[in-house]
Amino acid sequence: MKPVFSFLLFLQLSCWLTAYNAEAQKLYTKNGEISFYSNAPLENIEAFNRSITAVLDTKVGAVQIGVLMRGFEFEKALMQEHFNENYVESDKYSKAVFIGSIQANEKLPYTQDGTYSAVAKGKLMLHGVEKEITVNGKIVITSGVPQLFAEFDLFLSDYNISIPSMVANKVSKNVHIKVLLTLDKKLK
Fold first, then answer.
1. What is the DSSP string of 64-127?
2. What is the structure's pLDDT at 188?
3. What residues are paired with 175 via a beta bridge?
4. Smallest Cα–Cα separation from 54: which of 97, 113, 24?
5. How far apart are CA 72 and CA 124, in angstroms?
6. Strand 26-29 vs strand 185-186: parallel, antiparallel, or unpaired?
7. Rounded to whole angstroms, what are the CA distances from 186 to 29, 125, 138?
8. pLDDT score for 8
9. What three-state secondary structure class fits 164?
10. Pairwise CA distance, residues 14 & 20, whole Å
11. pLDDT tens digits, residue range 103-136?
12. Which CATH code is given to the segment(s) 26-186?
């Protein structure tokens, strides 16, 4: 009877450790940062957002990022109002979501401090439109904590965000996006 008990204890411990290791692979943050910059002839537009949630499964490279559109803060209140009401229609489309994966994830040493180039591929849902995108970035690991950095451009027309003709010379047709995510929490 003793060998059976030992085997069952070993099996239970193995299952617990496997579950623990699988959980330890998922990291998240609720304090990411995203900004965008639009360069236009009459006026540059810049906004920052810290209402971001992101999850990264370092084991398989799956990544998901959610951004509350009303979280973007502008220098001028009128810009913020126009952004939410006229452009991204935040009441109707409250979030932007990216679901994708880090390419060649198996080559990234998440336990070794350093800076590593990374490419994320996936779908970005913005303003009710879902598009495949590829984003180049880097992952910086410091004391075992990964930070994800990315910069890329989006064309507003790709996401059915129209620019009224009366302000067409004030708003650029594309925006430059910057993302910073510090994945410092383990998902339980």
1. EEEEEGGG-EESSHHHHHHIIIIIS-TTT--EEEEEEEETTGGG--TTS-EEEEEEEEEEEEET
2. 74
3. 154
4. 97
5. 17
6. antiparallel
7. 9, 26, 20
8. 38
9. coil
10. 10
11. 999 999 998 999 999 999 999 999 999 999 999 9
12. 2.40.128.110
